[in-house]
Specification:
Order of helices and strands: EHHHHHHHHEEEHEHHEH
Distance between the termini: 23 Å
Structural class: alpha/beta
Number of helices: 12
Bound molecules: guanosine-5'-triphosphate, magnesium ion
Largest sheet: 6 strands, mixed
Number of strands: 6
Strand content: 5-15%
CATH superfamily of the largest domain: P-loop containing nucleotide triphosphate hydrolases
Number of domains: 2
Shape: globular
Strand order of the largest sheet: 2-3-1-4-5-6
């Protein structure tokens, strides 16, 4: 079964759209969780990960660990935090390993590294732990721990807590490990899968989905409109926990994501698509709300710091972006949670199919 049938004149008329065929596009800034959602699609609806994917993932995880220690070491210098005297030279052992490792063939089994001892000692150092806690709670990225590094910080404790397992030569990343690793997307990727969704009268119908994942870093965004043809829906992913983070350009990261959605909605080619906002990283939002007040970053927020009020407030901000009479549906997500994402992706499939059917009836 093909995807996204084209129609005359480039712009698809809803009555001509094959309603059991939908074309989705994952959009959103860098690091918000698009590829994580894409990976969940592979786990839930396709054949999951191959051996080659797992070799790739093993290399990425090792590289991420070496990178995060390099960042944390630099942060100890910025913050004038001392390491234990015996550990001061350890980074000098790790840096050459990282450089060599970066030059590897990413599709082959990654080369063994010999610096696990240094990695373990450095991670256990009270100075590095102090820098880690500071980076995790800080609202403004410093030179060495900028906005992009914040993503590394988000998962660092997950991987660094299992160094014992990772350093084994026969370690093979699990699906959860693959969902947690950080690798910015540079080439778009597409998946096609079939699923069953409930139609308006509660009957199951087959749906064929084609979904494209693109890079979200600023220099990748110029490529987005190339994927606009015959689009059914945009899944706009946002990092809800970024409400207190300043980007390198000084803008608040969540406000910038709301602004970016506004631009997307006005971009020729995207104006006809259904927009679903996936308000992601709810697990991290919940954690951050314990210590960081939303009102300190969003002047118009005057409620308590409870998860429910904050989620509603952010959802309304995204919904208000569109003033052309079209609704924006907002669904909260934690992309790393496969069970939850199964429900979310079922709701997405259902919402897109119902809207497509309703439009076809209206225009038909
Ligand atoms: N804790 C937590 N981490 C998440 C969640 N979603 C994604 N992540 C992590 O955030 C990091 C970035 O996720 P990606 O899916 O690579 O982000 P992306 O939007 O594809 O980024 P680009 O490819 O640069 O545009 C990864 O380490 C993910 O594991 C979430 O809901 N909770
Ligand atoms: Mg990506």
């Amino acid at each position: 079964m093909g995807c996204g049938q084209s129609s005359s004149g480039g712009k698809s008329r809803p009555s001509e759209v094959k309603t059991n065929n939908v074309k989705l596009l994952l959009l959103g800034s860098g690091g918000v969780g698009k590829s994580t959602i894409f990976k969940q699609m592979r786990i839930l609806y396709a054949s999951g990960f191959t051996d080659q994917d797992r070799h790739w993932a093993k290399g990425c995880i090792t590289e991420n660990i070496l990178e995060v220690l390099e960042d944390l070491d630099a942060l100890t210098e910025d913050l004038d935090i001392d390491l234990l005297p015996d550990n001061e030279e350890l980074m000098d052992e790790i840096k050459p390993a990282l450089l060599e490792f970066r030059g590897r063939d990413v599709n082959a089994p990654p080369p063994a590294i010999t610096v696990w001892g240094a990695v373990e000692k450095l991670w256990a150092d009270p100075g590095i732990q102090k820098a880690y806690k500071t980076a995790k709670s800080r609202s403004v990225g410093s030179n060495s721990m900028g906005a992009e590094s914040n993503n590394l910080i988000d998962w660092a404790s997950y991987f660094l807590a299992k160094i014992d397992e990772l350093k084994q030569p026969d370690y093979v990343p699990t699906d959860d490990d693959i969902l947690r690793l950080r690798r910015a997307t540079t080439d778009s990727d597409r998946i096609e899968y079939d699923m069953q969704v409930k139609n308006m009268v509660g009957k199951s119908s087959p749906l064929h989905v084609s979904c494209t994942d693109v890079g979200g870093q600023a220099h990748e965004q110029a490529e987005w409109s190339k994927h606009a043809a015959n689009l059914s829906a945009i899944l706009y992913v946002a990092n809800s926990s970024a409400y207190n983070i300043a980007q390198q350009d000084g803008l608040n990261m969540l406000k910038a994501q709301i602004k970016l959605l506004e631009t997307v909605c006005k971009t020729p080619g995207f104006t006809e698509a259904i927009v679903i906002v996936l308000l992601n990283k709810i697990d991290l939002l919940e954690e951050r709300l314990q210590t960081v007040k939303v009102a300190d970053f969003f002047e118009d927020y005057d409620d308590d710091n409870s998860l429910d009020s904050v989620k509603d407030f952010f959802a309304n901000k995204f919904k208000a972006v569109r003033n052309d009479g079209q609704n924006i549906n907002v669904i909260e997500t934690t992309a790393t949670n496969t069970k939850l994402m199964e429900e979310v992706l079922a709701s997405v499939g259902q919402a897109v199919m119902q809207k497509t059917l309703a439009d076809a009836k209206y225009f038909g």
